[in-house]
Each structure stands twice: as C-alpha cells, then as structure tokens.
TrEMBL record:
Top EC class for this record: oxidoreductase
Phylogenetic placement of the source organism: Eukaryota, Metazoa, Chordata, Craniata, Vertebrata
Protein role: Catalyzes the reduction of all-trans-retinal to all-trans-retinol in the presence of NADPH.
SUPFAM superfamilies from the UniProt entry: NAD(P)-binding Rossmann-fold domains
Matching Pfam families: adh_short
Major location category of this protein: membrane
Entry keywords, A to Z: Lipid metabolism, Membrane, NADP, Oxidoreductase, Transmembrane, Transmembrane helix
Family stated for the protein in its record: Belongs to the short-chain dehydrogenases/reductases (SDR) family.
Protein name: Short-chain dehydrogenase/reductase 3
Example of a GO cellular component annotation carried by this entry: lipid droplet
E.C. number(s) listed in UniProt: 1.1.1.300
InterPro entries: NAD(P)-bd_dom_sf, SDR_fam
Biological process annotations from GO: regulation of retinoic acid receptor signaling pathway
Membrane topology recorded in Swiss-Prot or TrEMBL: Multi-pass membrane protein
Length: 303
C-alpha cells in the first residue's frame, strides 16, 4: 500500500452501499460520533445518486457522514441534496462556480465554518461543448479549461492543506479516457482532461511522502449520462456506455484500495498500450473503423 494510504481502519458490518465503502476505507478509529465530511463538485452531471447504490448513503455505526455539494445550478443541487437527505445522510449544498477562484476560496471557508474539515474531495465538475475548434466560441473554450482543469487547482488548494496537516484525507478526480485518446468534435473537453490528468499525475507523485493522504484518478469510457447524450460508436455492443452506478462503485473501490489510477472498463488499458507503439496512420484507421472518428456528429449533450 502506498504511503498516502490511511494508517488505520474501522471495522463495520458488510457494506451495503457506496458510502458504506467510503466510510470503511478512509475513516480512522472513531471518536464519539465523528463527523466525516465529503465534498463533491458537479455531482448532478456525473455518477448520480440512486436509491440503493450511491456515494451518499449513511454508513452503519456511530458515524456522522456529511456530504457537501457544489455546483452552478441551484435547482439541481437542491434536488440532489433532498434525495441524499432522504437516505438519512446529512447533506448541504452551496452554489459555487469552481472556475471562479475567489468564489471557491470563499465557499471553502463557509464549509469549514459550517461543517468542518473535508476528508474526501471529489472533483467531478466538467463541461463539454461538442464542437470543432473552428466552430467553438472563444468564451466557450475558456469556460471548459477553467471548469475542467483550473477548477481542480482551486478546490485542491482550498482543502488539501488541512488534509496534510491532519494526515488524513483523499482527493478524487473523475477524469476521462479521452484525456489519453482524444476524438474530433470534443477538442475543448479532451484538451482540458489531458491537462487535468497531467495535474493529477504530478500531484499524486508529489504526495508520496505525505502519510494519510491519497489521490485517485478515474478514467472511464463514455458514461451514460446527459453530458454526452447522442454520442454514437460503430459497435455499441462491444463498447456499451458505462452505467453511472458502476463508475461510482468502481471509484469507491479504488479509493478504498488506495489506487492512484483506474481505467474503466479494464479494456481501456489496451487502448493506451496500443497508442504507445502503433504508428499514427494505424491509430487513425482504428478510429475510423470503431466509429470514434465520427461519434460526436450526433452529439446533443448537456454543457
């Protein structure tokens, strides 16, 4: 296990939900009713909350698991917070644009004063405009970079220092396989995710000697959410979109095992390996054959 892994664990009954797994993986030996805050960005666009399998179900035992949601749309935040609260978990939400550095630092201070220190930071906020470079508006291109990449700089700078001080915490980045295998029609998204991956690789290496604090980067294939609605590949039976609950489950499994990087599905490893030695002309033919070259032509997702 890497040096960034938690030094101690608490034993609970067999976990039933994703939040049970998070609590079991990161929570140290408990004090009386310890609070266990986790903050998530962009929850409504990524692995969604569901009734039986989510990040946000209250773990068994004397633990207060607190969820703080950040996002730009209050309506989505409110609906998600209400759904989480119905499961018995304390949940708060704050409207915050992670692209705005001053707003991130301001709301981080509010979180610390209202809830306490954050133990798990999940960076999931992202946008995609689904256009070529020449079709893209300049402001839209900047928006993608500020939210998808720079937003992580600000959130991690806001919460990581306290994790390092307490020697307890975990930073999670929901990235994309498109960071290593870009496609036409999503140039803003692919570029920002590649930058985000390099950022997390550097951050992860930089924390090798930081006990109790770890990093996990998740690189999934196309996930079946509104974000990439309309995306079509040539062989959907061979490359079906991932279910959000599967991505959430595997993410928590990776955090619990203190894995630094995880590809979903595992076959994405082959794609990365092929790209490392195959000539560009061969890769281009693979893109044409698989349909990834034109998969964004039918894109009508949510930005």
């Amino acid at each position: 296990m890497r040096k960034g892994s938690p030094p101690d664990f608490i034993t609970f009954p067999r976990p039933r939900t994703l939040t049970d797994l998070i609590a079991q993986s990161l929570l140290p030996h408990p004090r009386p009713t310890p609070r266990f805050p986790a903050r998530m960005t962009g929850l409504h666009l990524g692995p969604r909350v569901d009734k039986e399998n989510s990040f946000t179900r209250r773990p068994p035992g004397p633990v207060i698991f607190v969820v703080i949601l950040w996002g730009r749309t209050e309506k989505c935040l409110k609906e998600t917070a209400e759904e989480i609260s119905l499961s018995g978990t304390e949940c708060h939400y704050l409207v915050c644009d992670v692209a705005n550095r001053e707003e991130v630092y301001k709301q981080a201070k509010v979180v610390r004063e209202k809830v306490g220190d954050v133990s798990i930071l999940v960076n999931n906020a992202a946008v995609v405009h689904g256009k070529t470079l020449m079709e893209s508006d300049d402001d839209a291109l900047l928006k993608s970079q500020h939210i998808n990449t720079l937003g992580q700089f600000w959130t991690i700078k806001a919460f990581l220092p306290r994790m390092l001080e307490l020697q307890h915490g975990h930073v999670v980045c929901i990235n994309s396989i498109l960071s290593q295998s870009p496609i036409p029609g999503a140039i803003d998204y692919c570029t920002s995710k590649a930058s985000s991956l390099a950022f997390m690789e550097s951050l992860t290496l930089g924390m090798l000697d930081c006990p109790g604090v770890g990093c996990t980067t998740v690189l999934p294939f196309h996930t079946n959410t509104e974000m990439f609605q309309g995306l079509r590949v040539r062989f959907p039976q061979l490359f079906p979109p991932l279910k959000p609950e599967v991505v959430a489950q595997r993410t928590v499994d990776a955090v619990r095992a203190d894995k630094a990087f995880i590809y979903l599905p595992w076959t994405m490893h082959a794609l990365v390996i092929l790209k490392s030695f195959m000539p560009q002309v061969a890769l281009e033919e693979i893109h044409r054959f698989s349909g990834s070259y034109t998969c964004m032509n039918t894109f009508k997702g949510r930005t």
